[in-house]
Amino acid sequence: MNCANHEQVPATAVCATCGRPLCGDCTIRLQGRVTCKTCLESRELERAKRAPMQKSPTVAAFLSLMPGLGQVYVGYYLAGFINILVVALLINVIAHMHGPGPQPFLGLFLAFFWLFNMFDAGRRANLYNRHIAGTEEKAPPTDSPLVGGIILLIIGILLTLAITFDIRLTFLETIWPLILVAAAVYLLVRYWRTRNALSRGADRAAAAERELDG
After folding, report:
1. Which of 3, 56, 116, 199 is exposed most, by the fewest CB atoms within 10 A?
2. In 3D, which of 186, 119, 175, 198 has the Cα closest to residue 146?
3. What phi and psi, each to the nearest 5 degrees, are found at residue 204?
4. Which residues of 105-122 are buried (b: 16+ CB within 10 A; e: fewer)?
């Protein structure tokens, strides 16, 4: 197999985007992937057209003074709702405890989680900015707006039942830990799907390299 641009020169790599064989002079390596000049120019042109707005890490951290709001600003809707839920539940548990108990521990954890929530929002904003600058190859580190929409819909329905129709929702006091379990399961499933997708991509790239060597 010879280079697509230099027909007399043997190819030494394959463009990961278009699959064209490339010689050493035509091979461009970007973040560990092989690309050709045409695909690189197309990628830069497409990125310039999209030109998404960067997220300010400072604004993200400041908004996280209200836990979760900074994550929502960056695009992590699920993480934002989980953060505000954790903080609200901790405050509720501490407020209803009487006598000696784990209040000091829970108070320290609440303070730690609140600060973590702010640093996390700034870190996520930096990660988002690195992606749109082209230094990150993976998909944009954000959640689908569908997640935020579903969560808001559920909260809206519960508030409507409680306020408009005066339906008591006392059962939520005993099942709220299941919400955290469901969120944890969702995150774990998402992690394994992402890991498997990356593994399949690496396997395809390795197979292409073996075919080229053969």
Report:
1. 199
2. 186
3. -65, -40
4. eeeeebeeebeebbebbb
